[in-house]
Every structure is written in C-alpha cells, then in structure tokens.
Design a protein that fits this description.
Blueprint (H helix, E strand, L loop, with lengths): L1 H11 L6 H23 L4 H12 L2 H8 L2 H13 L3 E2 L2 H27 L2 H9 L3 H29 L4 H4 L2 E2 L2 H37 L3 H4 L1 H27 L23 H8 L1 H16 L2 H4 L1 H17 L5
Parallel strand pairs: 1-2
Helix pairs in contact: 1-2, 2-3, 6-8, 6-12, 7-8, 10-12, 14-16
Length: 322
Amino acid sequence: METIKNYLETMFANMPNTPEVKKAKAELLSMMEDKFNEMIADGVNENQAVGTVIAEFGNLDELAADLGLAKELRETHEREESKPRRFLRMEEVEDYLNVMKGNGLLIGIGVLLCITSVTWPILFEFLLRGQVGDGLGVTGMFISIAVAVALFVFAGIRGNDWKFLDKELCQIDLSTADMVKSKKRDFKVPHAIMIAVAIMLFILWIPTAAIDIDIVSNCLFYFVGAGVCLIIYATTVMGSYEKVLKLNDSKTISGSYGKDKGDIVYVNKFAEGVMEVYWPTVTCLYLIISFVTMDWHITWMIWVIGAIAHRLLEVVLAAEED
C-alpha cells in the first residue's frame, strides 16, 4: 500500500497546492485503496494488486476530467514546459549535505585561525623577548592566515559543483524530503547546544579581558574564535537542510514536502524572511545591549520578551489554513 501512496505523490507532485487538488487527490487515494483491498480480499497477491491499481488509476491525464482537474493539469503541463525543474536524486542530496557539513567545519576552523592569528606575536613576545620572539610571532600569524585562506579556497572548490542550486530550478521527491527532514530533526538539539555554547564563550571573554596580563587576556581571542566557529558550523549544516527542503515549488503539492506537521506557513515571503532572522536578531541585540550596559543580571529578560513577541508574530503572520 505504501507503494501506491508514493506513486500517488509522484502523480500529484507538480499539481497546484489548492483545496480542489487536495480533495481530488484524497478521492483518488480512496479509490485506489478500495481497489487494492478488494483484490487482496479476492486472494490476489500484493504485488499483482499494486500493479493493477497503478495501471487502472495511475494516469492522471486520463482521470483529470473525472476528478475535475482538467484545467489544473493543463496549467501544470504548461508550467513544466516553460520552467522545467532539475530532479535531484536522494544520493545527490546526501552528497550535497555531506559537502556542506564539511565546508561548515572548514570555514569555521579558517575563521578561528584568522581570529587567533594575532595571538602568536603576543605569545612569542612573552616566551622569547627580542627580535627572535617578534620574528617567530609574525611568522606564526602569517602561517595561521595562510592555512585559513587555504581552507577557504578548498571549501570553495568543494562547493562549486553545487552552485547550480542557486541558479536552476530544482526538485526532490517525497522520500528524499523525508530523509532530509529526519536529519534536520536529529540536528536540532546539537544545533541548539552549539549556539548556546558559542554565546557562553562570548560571555566568558569579559572576565578574561579584565585581567591585565597579556598572555591571559589573550585567551579572549580563542573564546571568540571558538564561538564563531561553532556558529558557522551549526548554521551552515542547518542551512543546508533548509535549502534542500525549499527546493520544490511552494505553490505545488511537492512544496509541502519540506514542512513538518505543526510547521507554520506564513502569509508571504517577507513574513517568512522576518521569522527566519528573528532569533539571530534577538541574539545580536542581547549581546550588544549586554556588552554596552554590562547589566547581565537584567538583560536576560530580553529572552523572555523575545519569546512572547515571537509567539505574537507567529499568530499575526501565519496564513489561514485551507
């Protein structure tokens, strides 16, 4: 029966995501299920039953008039011809996700090396006084920057094969979307932990910076660098999942593949964009206000206010269900 449902999803994937199409899809599924159960009751094996059901109900062109979808099907064919989409197999999507995960780590480490490169002159000045210390410090700084640049270039080369995702219209099927959603759900907790640890590292540099010893206060660069590295990796990986899940045309049935149950659909792209940057913006405001005022015992209230405001925005900007 699962094979029939997957076939039905493929049939309707590019159809408009309208109440009429959803109703017709549900009716056709009911007919296919009835036929399948009837054949199973008559002693037909499952494979033969599936094949018969698909042969009888598997051509949407023949069923469109009976389902009242002639107009929608015609418009779908015209859209497919005028704006064809590149289909991505599950293996291709998995390769892309692995590349982006690796690139997130490479870029994160590169940024960490850039931020901490300034610590080498201070370190060698502390360990070796004089021109030898200065020379080794400058050498260490440039080596760090050189390695960072190499990591950036390597990451860029690895990502070149996937630039078409930003230029071409692409599409994934239901099983691929389910695979990506599963990976995204599994990554939500690590993502939250990495962001939380990064914020904690940003906060820890305050007492370190107050210590008037170069070698100790130098640690603030490592705190900040490690925090930025974690944020880059976490956002790169999560961003790759979200990008794949948004490949399908949002106006079609397949456009709903990327949404989990309970996901909120917003009234327009602008509202969706606002909600996507909401928490990063709150985080930036929290850090800026906290660092400027140094009232950490009070600024935590920003999170409480932010949570209330987020819920209100969800209610106001959410689209009405069909």
